[in-house]
Design a protein that fits this description.
- The protein is α+β, with helices and mostly antiparallel strands.
- Among the domains are: 168 residues, Jelly Rolls; 132 residues, no CATH class.
- The protein contains 14 helices and 31 strands.
- Strand 24 and strand 25 form a beta hairpin.
- The chain is globular, with a radius of gyration of 26 Å.
- The chain starts with a strand and ends in a 13-residue tail after the last helix.
- 46% of the residues are buried.
- The N terminus is likely disordered.
């Protein structure tokens, strides 16, 4: 591919003869069009380069340009899906982009491509034209190869219609040497970018002065709890209490506590494999001064069973403080920052050596559930079978090691897992082999209720030839009877799952709170939420948006009656070289506005007891251990904080207790994208 732009694939509907893609000069000719009222969401038109499967390598191009218009008089939701293999839309093989096009409007998408091989989960990107945000979901494992494209007009009404007139690759990106020796994106420049070791030293001196000039909030005790209200009963450990209609954590000394946390205070490694290796213009030598910069996925933790990857954070800390002092200095600096910026909690996945200093409240990730992977069968991906006869006893054994936290007053509590994909359970359980404990339990209950497969098929709208062949509907909405039956099973399964872990954790550590399993956004099955609330002290949800949907969260609270904690939230931008962003805003100043808006509005909700920002460091520009690279931190890879975000945190965190008590109204504005 030569030049700034390159037309790429022949796009024709599946089963039709192939034709060549229109050049930019012929953009007026529509490549794809949809008639009003046609809903093809369940069977999208598949477009490819011809009858034979051919793969086009897109890795090395930064942008996919899509020009489209809505010729109808109702909004049209347009979806474009890229697939490596046309026959499979499994995770790692496809990514889909969707957006709503206003009636009579036209727009031009500029979809960033490089991040598709590194990131996962849902992403939002600003659009150009009469579109709402472009939403993307999925990932294509590197290198970026696209074998086909699916285009669909979804969720439409009779008055909607859309045309796509142009698709084109643009903006070639260097494949070699685009990450500089500081771990920054070398292909992009910005104000304040580090270009010398001396710049690191100067920034360090400046920050020392700034921290000295900006002391922590004065209304905090040694637990970072609030001294602005009379103390409650002191228990010696963190506990929960509802005061004047507002849920609070209560610190060991009895002062009210709101958990405003920062996740991942740890020096993680940058992924190094055959795809990312050429991107680095420099790698730290694995011997001598920079030897400590090599470790496993979490940084300089020596583990010979895992790949050894470089930590540019550690390399830059060594440049700044030397190989003998960098680790001690970085932890002292991290504590000074968190306390000085008004945070009250060291969040999940943070450095155990930092936590062990016992100078600031912290949360833990909970039991090491992975130790059961080879002992208990799975009911679904990453969900151990709660009906396995030895599940509870094994869970108790794994939880036993948590006794080490039992007497630590700085421990707020324990999470349990993270973002479990509970929605996969119905399909996965019915797809298990005969005799699998969870499937056997479900089939037993269905046989008891329906007696015959014929009766079940009528109720579920299925065509199974026997109970063992029954599968969860994939190509249509489940019937009310199917949802009711599966909901009952989900409730029984999760009651056993949460119950076993809760009993094991409380047996090992009876003094600390159980903080839930960090639901990913909005849990779809209320039965799971109820089970969580039954066995956990707190319901935790990771929620990425400009603000929490209050009506939805009110319903969650009504179902469980338990206080809630936000395990992750954040705002990101690509103006300083990251390839992608999770909740995209325009620039660093708008990240600060997002922090104010979300943080303060969340703290004003009476049943929320805390919110933890994701995360402390920027994720590596080439991706962390699982290739995710969509999240800005408070601190760059060069260990230089983002000044606008720090200023916002100091201001919002400084009044967080008064906001939660209802003494001060939340402020801020919604961030611009």
């Amino acid at each position: 591919m030569i030049g700034r732009r390159s037309s790429f694939l022949v796009l024709v509907a599946a089963g039709l003869a192939a034709g060549f893609f229109a050049a930019p000069a012929d953009a007026a000719k529509n490549l794809v069009s949809f008639s009003g009222g046609r809903d093809i969401s369940s069977s999208p038109i598949m477009l490819s380069g011809g009858k034979d499967y051919t793969t086009t390598v897109w890795f090395g191009w930064q942008t996919l340009v899509v020009e489209l218009a809505n010729r109808g008089h109702e909004p049209a939701q347009v979806a474009v899906q890229l697939l490596r293999n046309p026959s499979s839309a499994e995770w790692g093989n496809s990514v889909a982009f969707t957006s709503t096009l206003a009636p009579g409007g036209s727009a031009r998408w500029r979809i960033p491509l490089l991040y598709l091989t590194y990131s996962k989960g849902a992403r939002r990107w600003p659009s150009q034209g009469a579109l709402t945000n472009i939403m993307s979901r999925g990932r294509i494992r590197p290198p970026l190869e696209v074998g086909s494209i699916a285009v669909a007009l979804t969720g439409t009404v009779a008055g909607a219609g859309a045309v796509i007139s142009r698709m084109e690759l643009a903006d070639p990106h260097p494949l070699k040497g685009w990450v500089d020796r500081f771990g920054q994106n070398g292909a992009v420049d910005w104000r304040g970018k580090v270009k010398s070791d001396g710049a690191l030293a100067e920034a360090d001196k400046l920050e020392v002065k700034e921290l000295a000039a900006s002391p922590p909030p004065a209304d905090r005790d040694r637990y970072q709890a609030w001294t602005g209200k009379p103390a409650r009963n002191a228990s010696g450990f963190f506990r929960l209490e509802k005061v004047d209609g507002v849920w609070w954590l209560v610190a060991p000394d009895g002062n009210l506590f709101y958990s405003q946390g920062l996740d991942c205070v740890w020096t993680g490694g940058a992924r190094l494999d055959s795809v990312t290796r050429p991107a680095f213009s420099w790698l730290p030598p694995d011997k001598g001064k920079f030897a400590a910069a090599w470790g496993d996925a979490h940084g300089a933790v020596k583990n010979e069973t895992e790949p050894r990857w470089p930590s540019f954070q550690i390399s830059n800390l060594i440049r700044k403080w030397g190989p003998e002092k960098y680790d001690v200095n970085y932890r002292e600096r991290a504590l000074a920052r968190l306390i000085g910026w008004g945070f009250t909690t060291i969040g999940n996945w943070s450095d155990p050596n930092l936590v062990a200093m016992r100078r600031m409240p912290y949360v833990t990730t909970g039991p090491e559930t992975w130790k059961l992977w080879d002992k208990v069968t799975y009911a679904a991906p990453n969900i151990l079978d709660a009906f396995h006869p030895k599940f509870e006893s094994f869970a108790r054994d794994v939880c036993a090691e948590m006794v080490r936290f039992k007497d630590d007053p700085m421990c707020v509590g324990h999470f349990l897992e993270n973002e479990i994909y509970w929605d996969a359970l119905p399909e996965a359980v019915l797809g298990l082999e005969e005799g699998a404990p969870a499937k056997a339990r479900l089939i037993k209950e269905l046989k008891r209720k329906y007696v015959t497969i014929k009766a079940l098929n009528v109720a579920w709208g299925t065509t199974a030839t026997g109970f063992g062949e029954l599968r969860w509907p994939e190509d249509r909405e489940p019937t009310k009877a199917a949802l009711k039956d599966m909901g009952k099973f989900m409730g029984e399964f999760t009651d056993r799952w949460y119950g076993a872990w809760a009993r094991g954790m409380r047996e090992a550590d009876p003094h600390h709170l159980l903080l839930g399993d960090r639901f990913a956004m909005e849990p779809d099955w209320e039965e799971i939420l109820v089970s969580c609330g039954k066995h956990m002290d707190v319901v935790s949800i990771n929620y990425y948006a400009h603000e929490l949907p209050r009506e939805t969260f009110d319903k969650y609270y009504a179902k469980t009656g338990k206080p809630m904690l936000i395990g992750e939230y954040g705002f990101d931008s690509v103006d300083e070289g990251l390839l992608t962003a999770a909740v995209t805003v325009a620039n660093q100043e708008e990240r600060a506005e997002g922090y104010r808006y979300y943080t303060e509005r969340t703290a004003a909700i009476p049943y929320i007891i805390g919110a933890h920002y994701f995360q402390y460091w920027d994720e590596p520009v080439t991706g962390r251990f699982d290739r995710e690279t969509g999240f800005n931190g408070f601190v760059r890879v060069t260990d230089n904080p983002y000044a606008p975000l720090v200023k916002a945190a100091r201001e919002s965190n400084g009044k967080i207790y008064r906001i939660h008590a209802g003494e001060v109204a939340p402020g801020g504005r919604e961030p611009r994208i």
